Amino acid sequence: MRLLCEYLPRTGCLLRLRLELGDEPALIRDEGRRIETVNDGFGFMNERALRQLAHVPRLAIQASSSETARDTNRTIILELIRLAGAVSRADLARLSGLQKSTVSAIVEELLVSRWICEGETGFSRHGRRPLMLGVNNELGVVILDLHPGNAIVAISDFSGRFLAQENVPISSQPHRSITQLLAAIKRVTNAEPKKAIQGVGISVPGRVDPSTGRLAFAPNLKWGPFDIRKAIADGTGLPVEIENAANVIILAERWFGSLSGVQDAVAINVSEGIGTGILAGGHLISGWNGMAGEFGHMRVETPGLLCGCGNRGCWETVASNHAALRYYRKLKGKAPSSFTYRHLLIDAQDQKAEAMAALRYQFVQIARGLQTILAGLSPEVVLFAGDIVAVWPYFSGVLTEEVPKMLNARLPRIITTADYGLARLRGALALVLQHHFSPASSRSVPRRMPVGDPSR
Predict the structure, then answer these.
(1) In whole angstroms, what is the distance from residue 144 CA to residue 290 CA?
(2) Strand runs (DSSP E) across 281-380, as ranges?
(3) Radius of gyration of the chain (CA)
(4) pTM of the entire structure?
(5) Which domains does the chain have, with CATH numbers?
(6) Per-residue model confidence as pLDDT tens digits over 122-148
(7) Which residues, 6 or more positions from 241, have their beta carbon under 8 angstroms from its beta carbon?
C-alpha cells in the first residue's frame, strides 16, 4: 500500500495525497518533487483510515510557498487523528510513514497547543499499553444556517456532534436580524459553558463576494450587499467563515459523507430557491466574482413567473419548494396559509393525490434544469440536498425517466445527503474545520473566546 505525497514544483508545498496499492517493502523515498511512503501489513482499521485520508479534500492543498515539510507532516498527523477518532503514536507512525521521533515531536506540540488530547489506554500484546490520541472535543464551533425568514443557530464540537441548537426568526432587515442572531449565539454558547469556542461558520442562501466577504447575490434573503461576516465577528469577537449553502453541502459530504474521493460533482440544494455548488478537479468553483453555480436563475420558461432576482422564468420559479406549494394550492383549490412544504411532504408520504401530483411536478421541473447542468458540466456525481430528500424513494425515478428524454447521454450517479436536516449545518462546521485544521492554524494555541467580547 502506497501513500503518495505530491508537492508543487519549486515550492515544496503539498499538492495532494494519493493512495496506491503495491507490493513494495516499507520505505521512505525523497525524490525532490515527491515523497513516497510505502507500507504493507496494515490492520483493517489502519487501512480504512489511510484510504479515508487519501480522499480528504482539504489535503488537495495549493498552499503558500512558505509551507514547510514540517507543516505538511503536522497536517497529515492531524488528519489521521481526526479520521481515526482514537489512535496511538505507534499507529500514527505506521500510517504516516514518518519516523517515530518525528511523530512524537508533532504530537507533543499538538498536545501543548490543545488541538488534540490523550484519552484511554489502548490494547497491546506486549509492553506498556499506549495512550490513545483524539481531537480535543472541548473545542467548539458556532454554526449559523440562514434561510429566508428563519435561521438555525447551533454549537458543535470538532467531531461533528451538535450539542445545542435554536430556531431563530429573521426578517428582510439585516441589522435587526443580526441582533436576534447574536442573542441566540449567546444562548447556545451559554448552554455549553465548557466549550472553548474557536469560530463561527455561516451557511447563506446566496453568493458571497470572495474578495470582500459581503453578500453578492441573495435575492430570497433580501439583505442586499450586507457584510454578515463583519457583523457577526464584531458582535462575538470570534473569527467567522461564510459560504454559499450549496458549497458548504459539498464540504460536508467531503468531510463527513458520501463524496470521499469524488473529484467532479454538483450539489443541488432545493429549498425556498435552488442553489448549486460545483466541485471540479477536487476544488470548489466560485468564479471570478463568486457567482459560479447560479443555475437556479437560468431561464427555463418564457415569459415565465417573476423571480426574486427580478427576472422571469428562472428555474427556481418552477422547481423550488415554493413552486411545489403553489402547484399544490392550484390543484387543491384551497389550502390554509399555515400549510408548509413540510406538510406537503407528510401528505405525500400518506399517498394523498394532490400532494403526490405536486411533488411529481416538482421533480419533472428539477429534471428540466438538471439536463443543462449535466450537458454543461458532466459531473461524476449529482448530490441533492434539502427537505425534498425525505420523499426521494417515491419520486427519484422521475429524474431517471425525464432526463434521458431531454439529454441523450448516460446519467451520472445521483445521490442525496444522508442527514438532509443537518447537511447545511455540517457544511458550515466543515468550513471552520477546513480553516482550523490548516497548518498555520494548528501552530496557534486555541483559547476560550468569550462570545460577545470583541476584544478577545
Answers:
(1) 20
(2) 283-284
(3) 24
(4) 0.76
(5) 2-135 (1.10.10.10), 139-249+425-442 (3.30.420.40), 259-417 (3.30.420.40)
(6) 555 555 677 889 888 888 999 999 999
(7) 199, 200, 201, 202, 229, 428, 431, 432, 434, 435
